[in-house]
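We modelled the chain as a single entity of 222 amino acids. Its sequence is:
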Amino acid sequence: SLCFSHPVCSPLLQAARGYARPVTRKRKDIPSHLDDLPPTLLKKDYANLPIMNSVDDVVKRLLSLEMASQKEKMKVKTQQLVEKVRRSPKDNGSFEVQGNFSLFFTVAVLTARIRTLEEHLQRHPKDKSNRRCMLMDVDRRRKMLGYLRRVNYSTFENTCKQLDIQYSPTQPHIRRITKRWLVKKAFCIKVFQEKQKLKAAERLKQRREWQAKARAARAQQE
């Protein structure tokens, strides 16, 4: 029998020990957008090498996505998304792929990054830094899709369909006009006008100095 008079066996201490016991939380299995990548697929840097047809199976396994990191899987996933929305593998002269940075490539990179950050925030909802990065990427992708929507609507529809994106245009911001806001706006306009006057006076003074130096140089040459 326990001696409840002893401090070690007191009911209060036993209850405190039970309360302080760490709680084991079951971790949720969050599905990832990288799960559809086959593990036997080679990494992006080794996929097109001819020597990969003659190497050992162990080497292929080491260079496959089964042993790859998330960064390497993201490269393969981004390439797949780009190939989805590109018209053909040799389509480098079309409107959507012109320039130093392909519009499709940028949208695909942003889509893969946004989905990765969404999965990360489901596990760590208090990570404010990554949430801010995700919102910035979403806004940047929305602007690119809005530009593509204005220029070529059929390509915009195909891009959203292939990448499984639900496009929502930016809502116009309506500011409530108050007396305080009107006074603040008038003050800012006044400050801007005074600053422009000071800049104009400085530019006029500098121009007169340059003209004086030019006249002096011409007088010396004569």
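As a brief sanity check on the tokenised model: Residues 82 and 104 are 6 Å apart (CA to CA). DSSP finds seven helices and no strands in the chain.
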